[in-house]
Design a protein that fits this description.
Nucleoside Triphosphate Pyrophosphohydrolase; Globin-like; binds zinc ion
Length: 341
């Protein structure tokens, strides 16, 4: 139980409870001091790993000894509450963190400590080794939707707020990962100042530029299965594919080039070398697919922003490929018409 005050800390007089401003408060009859009770600040952290598990501490001491809770502790008078959250996290779990955002502030009347203001942050783990501190008998990550009941009601409340906050994001990520189950999380797309007034998918342009040869190689591999009839022409087509990829990259960089006309000649050449138009459709479809798959593989996808950027990229390259294909088909057909004349 929270211990009661018996003597005044200023004059040593006896303290008793008295109705002040409609509430019973400690009062010193000798020096007339009213002791107002204010909540003590407590800082707490929600640390969630990539498996969507939340870091919990098993309490080694009272109150709530033996129960699990979020890493939590009192803020000292000379430190910021967010600093206290990180300090307690380190002390109790060994994990070093950085604050992501404020999740909740809750005031409670606790039988053991009295009035508390519990401030809960979302914290990202950035280092340290998981090991229980002095106040903890165990520390471990629990699946966030299957936590044991937590010592502090405020912890449960904050965790619900956190889950609500991320519900849509997780649903989007899960759905997207379902499309590409074999890929894992890689680097993040974080837009810089320059990207603000332009397409988010421009961030992915550098990736395409850097990896053009790799993308061409995977396209050539796909061609073996997808368009075996074109294998006798693979050298010329590889050159064509490379020039399309450079065109894609220029297109995405905002150089709205009008050089689609050059693909008219390409269409005519393809016709002359005996390539069938339906096979060209497949070759171009595989070319577009090779860009999309490469980006998904390299930049998969840990936020709605990244998913958006990737889908946007796919939309933008569809426009480009449509124009290329139109020009090739146009060239192919005009050549045929010329031949018949
Ligand atoms: Zn007094």
């Amino acid at each position: 139980m929270k211990r009661r005050r018996r003597f005044c800390c200023y004059c040593g007089g006896g303290v008793y409870e008295k109705d002040v401003d409609g509430k019973l408060r400690d009062f010193c009859g000798q020096c007339q001091t009213v002791f107002y009770e204010n909540p003590l600040p407590v800082a707490s952290s929600i640390v969630v790993n990539e498996e969507r598990e939340v870091l919990l501490v098993k309490r080694a001491k009272d109150p709530y000894k033996g129960m699990w809770c979020l890493p939590i502790g009192f803020a000292e008078s000379d430190e910021e509450v967010r600093g206290a959250a990180l300090r307690e996290l380190k002390e109790e779990t060994g994990i070093q963190g950085e604050i992501v955002r404020l999740i909740d502030v809750d005031t409670v009347d606790n039988y053991f400590y009295g009035s508390l203001a519990i401030v809960t942050y979302e914290v990202k783990a950035i280092g340290g080794d998981l090991r229980p501190g002095d106040d903890a008998s165990a520390v471990t990550y629990h699946p966030i939707d299957k936590t044991p009941s937590l010592a502090w009601i405020s912890n449960e409340k904050a965790l619900r707020i956190y889950i609500d906050l991320y519900r849509d994001t997780w649903a989007m990520l899960d759905s997207f990962k379902h499309l590409f189950p074999e890929h894992t999380v890689m680097g993040k797309v974080i837009p810089g100042e320059a990207e603000h007034k332009t397409f988010l998918s421009n961030i992915l342009v550098k990736l395409i530029e850097r990896d053009i040869e790799q993308i061409c190689e995977s396209w050539a591999r796909d061609m073996r299965h997808g368009a075996p009839k074109l294998m006798p022409h693979i050298r010329e087509l590889l050159e064509l594919n490379r020039s399309i990829l450079f065109g894609v990259q220029r297109w995405l960089s905002g150089e709205v080039s009008s050089d689609f006309a050059r693909f008219l000649a390409t269409g005519a050449q393809l016709k002359a070398t005996g390539v069938r138009l339906p096979d060209m459709v497949i070759a171009l479809a595989l070319s577009r697919r090779s860009i999309w798959l490469h980006v998904v593989k390299k930049k998969f996808l840990s936020s709605p922003l990244e998913i958006y950027a990737t889908l946007e990229l796919n939309n933008r390259i569809i426009f480009y490929y449509d124009k290329v294909f139109f020009a090739i088909a146009e060239g192919y057909c005009s050549d045929a018409t010329d031949g018949m004349r």
